[in-house]
Amino acid sequence: MELVKPDFGLVFWMTVSFLIVVFLMRKFAWGPILTSLKERETSIEEALNAARKAKDEVANMKSENERILLEARNERDRILKEARETKDQIVNEARSKAQVEGDRMITIAREAINNEKMAAITELKNQVASLSIDIAEKVIRQQLGNDEKQKALVQELLKDVKMN
């Protein structure tokens, strides 16, 4: 049972060996391990901060994009409204100009028709007068072509004059 029971020298050397191993581990292993863990922790924290910052920027960009899209829609609606108003104004102006021009052309046409009508009536009167004169001349020639007929016509005219 002596094997199980440690001796003072064994415990002393084991403690010294353990302390040397702890010192060496602390000097050569724990320092670099702790330093690399600290650096890793710092890089992870920086990455998380960058991710939060990027997420905030994306949220800001999204809200900015929505705002810009809303402004673009409002601008589009305003432009379409102005275009409709301009179109309506142009159509109304064209309609009124066409109405005025149509009325003017109708007035001119009526005047031309009246002028042509008056010219036709005048021409017709002139032709009727000319034809009446021609007919009267032919009738008178026929009536007065004979001496007896001339005397009878004079006698008849004289009777009419005395009666009046």
Radius of gyration of CA atoms, rounded to a whole number? 66 Å
Span of the ends, CA to CA: 196 Å
How large is the share of residues in beta strands? under 5%
Q: How would you describe the shape?
A: rod-shaped
Residue share in helix: over 70%
Number of domains: 1
Written account of the structure:
With 164 residues, the chain is mainly alpha-helical. The chain has one domain. Helix content is 94%, strand content 0%. The chain contains 2 helices and no strands. It has helices spanning 8-144, 147-163. The chain is rod-shaped, with a radius of gyration of 66 Å. The termini are far apart. 0% of the residues are buried. The mean pLDDT is 87.
Compile the SSE list and pairings.
Layout (H helix, E strand, L loop, with lengths): L7 H137 L2 H17 L1
Features:
164 residues, rod-shaped, 2 helices, mainly alpha
